[in-house]
């Protein structure tokens, strides 16, 4: 009689663990909101926008921190800068970009 109780007890635990495992799988696969970057063409080059939850939070049509009102030369430069800003936002840092960071990204100023 005790053997049957023991088997019954372990089969119940196994079922509960299996249900818990599947529940954790579903929760871990849930869609997480991420930042979305897009480039856009300007009259003199390229710019970028960053969206979060389908809302544009940053739209940058010129290169920041330089005295000129000049757009990025290439789409790649705009997207590299957008990537830097997104990384800062993910780390809860200010999204401002410094001239030194642009130089490190090899952005033509």
UniProtKB/TrEMBL annotation:
Q: Which InterPro entries does UniProt cross-reference here?
A: DUF4907
Domain of life, per lineage: Bacteria
Q: Name one Pfam family in it.
A: DUF4907
Protein's UniProt name: DUF4907 domain-containing protein
Q: Organism source for this protein?
A: Flavobacterium johnsoniae
């Amino acid at each position: 009689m005790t053997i049957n109780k023991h088997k019954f007890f372990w089969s119940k635990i196994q079922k509960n663990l299996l249900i818990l495992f599947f529940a954790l799988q579903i929760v871990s696969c849930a869609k997480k909101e991420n930042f979305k970057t897009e480039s856009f063409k300007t009259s003199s080059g390229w710019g970028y926008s960053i969206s979060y939850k389908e809302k544009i939070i940053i739209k940058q049509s010129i290169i920041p921190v330089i005295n000129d009102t000049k757009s990025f030369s290439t789409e790649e430069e705009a997207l590299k800068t957008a990537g830097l800003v997104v990384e800062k936002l993910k780390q809860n840092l200010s999204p401002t970009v410094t001239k030194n960071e642009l130089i490190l990204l090899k952005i033509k100023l």
